[in-house]
Amino acid sequence: MTTPSTTSSRWRALTHHHLFWPVAVLVLLLLVNVPFTPDFFSVRMADGHLYGSLVSIVLFGSPLILVAVGMTLVIATGGIDLSVGAVVAITGALACSYISDRSDQGALSGVLLAMGLGLLAAVVCGLWNGFLVARMGIQPIIATLIIMVAGRGVAQLITDGQIITVNSEPYKLIGGGYWLTLPFSIFVVAAVVAVTVALTRRTALGLLVEAVGGNAEASRLVGIRSRRIKIMVYAFCALCAGIAGLMISSNTSAADGNNAGLWIELDAILAVVIGGTSLLGGRFSVGGTVVGALVIQTLTTTIYTIGVPTQTNLVFKAAVVIVVCLLQSPKFRAKVFGARFGAGSGARGSGKQAAAPADPAAASEAAPKMEVS
Amino acid sequence: MSATTQSPTASGSRTPSTAGRLLGDRRLPVAVTALLFLVMYGVGLSRYQNYGFGEPQVFLNLFIDNGYLLVAAVGVTFVILSGGIDLSVGSMIGFTTMFTAWLVERQGLPIVVVIPMALAVGAFGGFLMGYVIHNFEIQPFIVTLAGLFLFRGLCLVISKESISIGDASVSSMAQAQVSLGMGFLSIGAIVSLVVLAVAFYVLHYTRFGRRVYAIGGNEQSAMLMGLPQGGTKIAVYTVSGFCSALAGLLFTLYIQSGDPLHATGMELDAIAAVVIGGTLLTGGSGYVLGTLFGVLVLGLIKSIIQFEGTLSSWWTKIATGVLLCAFILVQRFMTTRKKT
Question: Which fold has domain B31-339?
Answer without folding.
Answer: ABC transporter involved in vitamin B12 uptake, BtuC (1.10.3470)
